[in-house]
Amino acid sequence: MSARLLGTARSKQRLSKELSDCVVYCKSVHFRSFKHARIHSKFYEVASFTESKARKHLREAGAEFVHHNSRQLTRVYPTGFRTDSSNFNPQGMWNAGCQIVALNFQTAGEGMDLNDGLFSQNGRCGYVLKPGFMRDHDKRFDPDLPQKRDDYHPIVLTIQVISGQQLPKVNIKEDSIVDPLVRVEIHGVLMDQAKQETRYIENNGFNPLWNDTLRFNIHTPELALVRFVVEDYDKTSKNDFVGQFTLPLSCMQQGYRHIHLLSRDGTRISPSSLFVRVRITDLE
C-alpha cells in the first residue's frame, strides 16, 4: 500500500503546472433552463440533449435557444429509441446554433449526406464557423422568423438541370437501364425547406437530357444546404437511389458546373455526373 501511494505521489510531482494550465476542459452540466444558464453558466460548460429534447426547445423557444448557443456549448445526440442506428436530420440543430450534433456514422443516408456536405468546406477539418448573426450576443435570430433579421437578404436560386453522364445501373441484370430523374432539395430554416424534381428520362443512363429549370426562394442562404439526388424512376414501387451530392449554398459557384455524384456511403461514383447551370439573384 505504501509503495502504491508513493508511486502516485511521484506521478503527481512529474506533472507540469504550466503545461496543465494550457489545457481547457469542457465540463458537462445538467441543463435546467435558458434563464438559469444565462445567469449561472460558465463558458467551459456544455449541456447535452437528446434529439427530441432539442427539438422541443427549438419549437418552443427557438430564438432563446440560438441566443443560448451564442454563449454556451450544446451537444445533441440520437435518442435511445434508434435501435437500428438510424439518424435524425441534423439541420434543425444547426439552425439553432448547436455546436456538436452527434450522428450514427455507421448508417448512410440523408443525415450523413448533410453532415458530410456541411463539413466538406474548410478542408474537412471538422469545424465550421457559424454565421455572425448567430454569434452576436446582442442579436436575436429566430429560425422560424428569418425575415426579422437586421441584415435580411433573401435570394433566388435557379438551377437548370441540363444533362447527366454515365449514370450507374442499380439493377444487376445485364439488360437493366435506369430511368433517371433529378431531385434538388434545400435544407435550411423551416421557411427554406423545399424540394423539386425534373421529369424522368426513359431508358437512358448514359447521357440523359432534361433541360429542366428549378427555382427556390431562400430566406437564410447562410444556413442552407443544397442536395442533388438522382433516382431511377419506378411507377409501381419506390424509386431506387442512384447517387447524390450535397454542399452548402455558400460554396456554390454560379455558371455551368459538373456535379460529381457520390454513392450511398459517400464514395465517388466515377465518372457519373450531372451538368447544371446555377444562377443566384436577389429576391425582389
From TrEMBL:
Biological process terms in GO annotation: intracellular signal transduction; lipid catabolic process
InterPro entries tied to this protein: C2_dom, C2_domain_sf, PI-PLC_fam, PLC-like_Pdiesterase_TIM-brl, PLipase_C_Pinositol-sp_Y
EC number: 3.1.4.11
Catalytic activity: a 1,2-diacyl-sn-glycero-3-phospho-(1D-myo-inositol-4,5-bisphosphate) + H2O = 1D-myo-inositol 1,4,5-trisphosphate + a 1,2-diacyl-sn-glycerol + H(+)
Pfam families on file: C2, PI-PLC-Y
Any single GO CC term annotated in Swiss-Prot or TrEMBL for this entry: plasma membrane
PANTHER family per UniProt: 1-PHOSPHATIDYLINOSITOL 4,5-BISPHOSPHATE PHOSPHODIESTERASE DELTA-4 (PTHR10336:SF31), PHOSPHOINOSITIDE-SPECIFIC PHOSPHOLIPASE C FAMILY PROTEIN (PTHR10336)
Name this protein carries in UniProt: Phosphoinositide phospholipase C
Organism: Crenichthys baileyi
Gene: PLCD4_1
